[in-house]
Structures are given as C-alpha cells and as structure tokens.
C-alpha cells in the first residue's frame, strides 16, 4: 500500500512539474510523427512506381516510332 501511495505522489509531482512534456504528450507526438512518416514512405514508393511506369511507357512509344 505504501508503494502504491509513493507511486501516485511521484506521478502527480512529475505531471504537475512539466505537464506539456509528460508521457502522454510524448506518446501522442510519437504516434502522429510515426504515422506521418509511414504515409510519407508509402507516398514516395507510389511516386517512384509511377515514374518507372511512365519511363516504360515512353520507351515503348519510342520503340514504335
């Protein structure tokens, strides 16, 4: 029981001292940053595939002329 009370008191001290830099803010920022990074990588991969397809299309049209 004493350990639980110490944990609660220390948690309150940490959260009250720096509420903007608390664990939950860090966790949310990390989740948003990670999500944006994944979407960026997927978009970059799709753009590269589109460029490759355009190059292949151009080569095939040049071969017929």
UniProtKB/TrEMBL annotation:
An individual GO BP term = defense response to bacterium
> Mind telling me which InterPro entries this protein's record contains?
Antimicrobial12
Write down the superkingdom of origin: Eukaryota
Task: Tell me, in one coarse class, where this protein mainly resides.
Answer: secreted
Task: State if Signal is listed as a keyword.
Answer: yes
Which keywords does UniProt give here? Amidation, Antibiotic, Antimicrobial, Secreted, Signal
Statement: the UniProt record of this protein carries the keyword Magnesium: no
Q: Name one Pfam family in it.
A: Antimicrobial12
Listed under GO cellular component are:
extracellular region
User: Where does this polypeptide localize?
Assistant: Secreted
Stretch forming the signal peptide: 1-22
What does the similarity note say? Belongs to the pleurocidin family.
Name of the protein this chain belongs to: Uncharacterized protein
Source organism (scientific name)? Sparus aurata (Gilthead sea bream)
């Amino acid at each position: 029981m004493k350990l639980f009370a110490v944990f609660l008191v220390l948690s309150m001290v940490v959260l009250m001292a720096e509420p903007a830099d608390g664990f939950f803010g860090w966790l949310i920022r990390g989740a948003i940053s990670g999500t944006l990074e994944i979407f960026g990588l997927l978009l970059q991969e799709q753009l590269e595939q589109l460029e490759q397809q355009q190059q292949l299309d151009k080569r095939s049209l040049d071969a017929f002329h």
